[in-house]
Amino acid sequence: MRRRGQKSYYDKHNLSRYVSKRNSKIKRFFRSFWRWILLVFVAVIVGYAIVTFGFQTVTVVGPSMNPTLADSQVVLVNKIVYKVSDVKRYDVIAYSRVDGDGYYDIKRVVGLPGETIRISNGDIYINGERRSDVPFTMTIQISGVAEDEITLGDSEYFVMGDNVNNSEDSRYTNVGNIAKTEIKGKVVSILLPRSDKGKVK
C-alpha cells in the first residue's frame, strides 16, 4: 500500500523519463549550437582565405582602360590563376610596383617574357612580326620607348592600356616592363556598378 505523499513506481519512472528527455534535449541543443559555431568559424576562415589568397576587389582609377573598363568601376581579381598557369597575351592584369605605394594598376599584357617588342606607325611588332590580332580599337599614336625594339627579360611583361593614346604604361620609362612578381592577378569581371556587371575580355 502506498503511503500519502509517497510516489509510486510509475511516478518515479515517469519523472526519470522526463528528466532523461530534458537532458537529451539540452545535449542536442548544445551539440547543434557548437556545430553552428564551428560552421560559422570555418566560413569566416574560408572567407578570409579566399579574400587574402584567392580573390580581391580593385577599383579602377582613371580612363587608361577605356572602353573595356571605366574609371571608378569595381572589378574582381583572380589571385590564384597565375599560381597554376602562365600569364597569357592580352590578359587584363592587376599589378603593383615593388617600389610603389601599394596602388594596384590595371593594364593589358601585350608582350611576354623573352620576346622583342616594337611599335611603328601604329602597329605592334612582336619578334619582328606585325600583330593583326591586337584588341585595341584605336590607332596607336604614341610609341614611347617601344619606338626602338625592346627585349623583355625572362620574367618581364610589356603592358598597355586599352585607351592606347591616354595610358601611362610600359611605353613610358617611369613604368617600364612589369615583373612577374609584381602581377597580383587576372581581372576577370566587373562587379560594380551592377549595370556594368560582366566578364572582362
From TrEMBL:
Pfam families noted in UniProt: Peptidase_S26
Reactions the enzyme catalyzes: Cleavage of hydrophobic, N-terminal signal or leader sequences from secreted and periplasmic proteins
GO cellular component, one term: plasma membrane
Localization (cell): Cell membrane; Membrane
Molecular-function GO terms, alphabetical: serine-type endopeptidase activity; signal peptidase activity
Domain Peptidase S26: 34-190
Membrane topology: Single-pass type II membrane protein
Keyword set, alphabetical order: Hydrolase, Membrane, Protease, Transmembrane, Transmembrane helix
GO biological process: signal peptide processing
Active site: S64, K107
InterPro entries per record: LexA/Signal_pep-like_sf (IPR036286), Pept_S26A_signal_pept_1 (IPR000223), Pept_S26A_signal_pept_1_CS (IPR019758), Pept_S26A_signal_pept_1_Lys-AS (IPR019757), Peptidase_S26 (IPR019533)
Entry's transmembrane regions: 33-55
EC number: 3.4.21.89
Principal location class: membrane
Broad EC category: hydrolase
Family recorded in the similarity comment: Belongs to the peptidase S26 family.
Protein name (record): Signal peptidase I
Organism: Wujia chipingensis
